[in-house]
Amino acid sequence: MTAAACFEELHPPLTREQVLSEADRCLECGGAHAPAPCLVSCPAGVDVPRFVAELADDDPGAAARTIFAENVLGGTCARVCPTEVLCQRDCVLVHDGRPAIDIAALQRYATEWAYAHDVPLRTPAPANGRYVAVVGAGPAGLAAAGELVARGYTVTVYDEREEIGGLVRYAIAPYRQSNEPLPDERRQLEQLGVVFRLGTRIDAAALESLREEADAVVLAVGMGADVDVAYDGDDLDGVWESLPFIEHLKLGYSPEVGSRVAVLGGGNTAVDVAVEAKRLGADVSLLLYRRTEHEMPAYEHEVELAREEGVEIRFLVSPVGFVGNGHVEGLRCAEMRLGEPDASGRRRPQPVPGSDFVIPVDTVVKAIGQRPRDEFRALLESVDEDGRTSDPTVFAAGDAINGGASVVQAVREAKRAVSSLEEALR
């Protein structure tokens, strides 16, 4: 592959004819007393059978309105939602031995049609005289803002970045989603009434000012930088952390990774980096995980995708340090074995004495996880399952409280936080 391949979409859009054929396969199961399994398993609560039926009737505008009624980020979710373990996994066709309806592709078609034809997200309720400040323009913040404005609130969204999207814009690999449809989603939210104040960092003092100005505040600040795990040789050229590596790609740059890349970690971000490294032209892209495949936190279908893309996965291997003269040339590792379970319930990896070895590499990317943000730790640590914090006027949602999950999970948590906020203001 060439470097340009890292920007090629994993799942290209369907044509109108393909959409009609795919939507027509839906059995339109479910009803008032037994909702369809795909609807039940959608964290955002989208009425999947209804919008699929509307597409089968060749009415993408109606389908889009059905989607937007529950999920103002329907376009982004269509690209990055793990439907393989949610709605498509529970499609009744699977239990009949047939392929699941491609719900994600159908949702993408409907939402893209809506953007092209200026279908509004919602019809806003009359202004209720209340003002809410949302901190963070990632998925949770955008979803909360859309829900609030649609219910009659005046809403301003603050973010330290110059563009909206949070992890979607800067931390999801471009073969899954580049920048689209974030500009369209921003336009829709602004048409609905959301005001954005980008390039504005909110610290503890600024939060105090917002609490005085607003009737309520929603914290949707996401997670922080990569987990700070230090190894000998960290300062060598060619050693990256995962978030800067992906952000580099998302901003249109193609790092020179050389012929051999090693990615450290076992989550979905590690998979993304390893796949992108292969697409950037690496002859060998190694994904090294210190436990076994059974303990790997990445989705099973993502691990299979990595293998299909040519990524080599090695288990029970842990880094010890990096070696090289100015630039990384080797990754020193130790073989591992699993001991007793740790606090997470997974068996703790332990090094095998005398097992050190060196893997020749040109690039190493550490994808071990993200740190929580420190700015509002006391508030974020007090959040209940409905988004309430210890301050009755401050609510929270998204990765900042769940430790890092899917975009559609952020949408669900934002909706819960908005419901709690409304209840509190009443």
How would you explain this protein's 3D organization?
This protein has 426 residues and is α/β, with parallel strands linked by helices. It is built from 17 helices and 14 strands. The chain has a 5-stranded parallel beta sheet, sandwiched between helices. Strands 5-13-6-7-8 form a 5-stranded parallel beta sheet. Strands 9, 10, 11 and 12 form a 4-stranded antiparallel beta sheet that branches. The longest helix has 19 residues. The N and C termini lie far apart (57 Å). 46% of the residues are buried.
Briefly, what is this?
Helix content is 35%, strand content 18%. The chain has helices at 16-23, 37-40, 48-56, 60-68, 74-80, 92-95, 103-116, 139-150, 167-170, 182-192, 204-213, 242-250, 268-279, 300-308, 377-380, 399-402, 407-425; strands at residues 131-135, 154-159, 195-198, 216-219, 239-241, 260-264, 284-289, 312-315, 317-324, 328-341, 347-351, 357-360, 363-366, 394-396.
